[in-house]
Amino acid sequence: MQYYLAPMEGITTYIYRSAHAKYFGGIDKYFTPFISDKNFITDKNSNKSLNAKELRDILPENNAGIALVPQVLTNNAKRFLAVAKEISSYGYDTVNLNLGCPSGTVTAKKRGAGFLSVPDELDAFLYEVYDKCPLKISVKTRLGVSDLSEWDNLLDIYAKYPVHELIIHTRLLKEFYTGDTHPEAYAKAVIRLQANDAAGNHSQIPLCYNGDIISAKSLEDAVTALNTDTRDSQNMTKSATIDCVMIGRGIIQNPALARQLPSSRSEHVISKEIWRAFHDEILSGYIKIMSGDSPSLFKMKDLWTYMSRSFTNSEKYLKRIRKANRISDYVNIVDGLFREQEIIV
Ligand SMILES: Cc1cc2nc3c(=O)[nH]c(=O)nc-3n(C[C@H](O)[C@H](O)[C@H](O)COP(=O)(O)O)c2cc1C
Fold first, then answer.
1. Which atom of ligand 1 has the smallest separation from the CA of 302?
2. What whole-number distance in Å separates Cα of residue 53 and Cα of residue 196?
3. d(CA 274, CA 147)
């Protein structure tokens, strides 16, 4: 089983990723949060597209020792190709296309999951980028915009291209991040994109499952659902499996999760000491690059939205953390949390 850390805007920065790899690990690939074409530098005299923050996030020296895939959010093939070229100049061999972001400002411009609403335009975009891009292109997609019936057509489109890897967030755009996932749609992708059948389909696109994996049990349930929900209706001759999982919120909540799941390379019992050292490294990383207390606190508060769920009495501490206006107050609260509370994952 391969485990990937999902890109999470504002959370899985290079500071988070490096600390995660150092203290927990178990991750085969990390992904940058999306690099949006909205922020690209458009100066005609410059052949650079990435702004300073995005560049810092992908610089090899900030990502030493980890396998990293930069992710791009655009629906413009020329801009995608320009940024991919720039990314390749830093030594990367793969770029990921974001077809999953459900945020209104992104989808209104038919980017992210909004691009799925115009499949013909998406097809033309993929034709051009797969034709001209010097890098391997992996895709992170949702199942469609508002109806699961859209998925078949999207699978037909993906099947036409040498997609390096298709990461499937098993939800529609309209479902944002909550409600049931649709593992049966993943099984459909296994059948359609990993086929070698009598009908002449020879597609072999590697797949990666994403959505609500927060424990060994949830992973087991997804694998079971894959087969029970699909087997009869799809004429499956063998069981569909999941051999790659991308995890977002589950890892932010429990950074040791990938090493606690089946077939990870090493077992990991999480300790408060390691978690504290991990936390302190992230905090000092932000303090170093951001001026004033507020921006660093903002980042840490976002993290605690998820991490607090792994501690006893989390609500009480989360409220206090969110109220902290100074780093010194924040550190006192976190001291108390680590001293007085227990880890429950
Ligand atoms: C706060 C937040 C930020 C996210 N940012 C990104 C992003 O930059 N790129 C992306 O492809 N997905 C992004 N996602 C989606 C996650 O990568 C992932 O697909 C989603 O959370 C479902 O996986 P999970 O249930 O394991 O968290 C974001 C999700 C959240 C909650």
1. 1
2. 44
3. 44
In contact, 249 and 306? CB cutoff 8 Å = yes
Which ligand 1 atom sits closest to the C-alpha of 33? Answer: 8
Ligand 1 center to residue 344 CA distance, Å? 24
How much of the chain, in percent, has pLDDT values that exceed 70? 92
Q: What pLDDT does 337 receive? A: 97
**Domain boundaries in the chain?**
2-260, 272-340
Q: Which of 54, 68, 177, 305 to mutate to test the pocket of ligand 1 (most atoms within 8 A of CB)?
A: 177
- In whole angstroms, give the CA distance from residue 106 to residue 38: 9
Pocket flag, ligand 1, residue 73 (CB < 6 Å):
no
Q: How confident is the model at residue 41 (pLDDT cuts 50, 70, 90)?
A: confident
pTM score: 0.95
* 55 alpha carbon – ligand 1 mean position (Å): 20
pLDDT band with cut points at 50, 70 and 90 for residue 49: confident
pLDDT at 101: 98
Q: Which CATH class is domain 2-260?
A: alpha beta
**Alpha-carbon dihedral sign for residues 121, 116, 248, 229:** negative
CB 57 near ligand 1, within 6 Å:
no
CB 102 less than 6 A from any atom of ligand 1: no
Query: What is the pLDDT averaged over residues 209-236?
Result: 82
